[in-house]
Amino acid sequence: MQQEQFEVTVTKLDGKIDRITDTIESIRFAQTDMYEKVTNIEKAIYNPDEGLYARLKEQESDLEDLKEFKANITKFLWIITSGMTGILIKFGFDLSG
Length: 97
What we know:
By secondary structure, this protein is mostly helical. The protein folds into two domains: 1-46; 61-97. 93% of the residues lie in helices and 0% in strands. The longest helix has 45 residues, at 2-46. The radius of gyration is 39 Å and the shape is rod-shaped.
């Protein structure tokens, strides 16, 4: 009787060990998959030539160029506006006098 109980207990334990082993294997697979994804994310962010930081640096450089261009255009427009205002004032004096 005890021998049969022992065999049943061993059989149950063997089944539980198999399930634990399967669970561990699935966890290992999930960890490997997660590691690959994290590695890909890291490459996408920190790659010095094509990564996120490189693209942000390039965008900041382009933005600085645009700001400089805008400042130059604004100066040019003020010069043109001032010149046109001066010309209009001169024409006004010439017509009245």
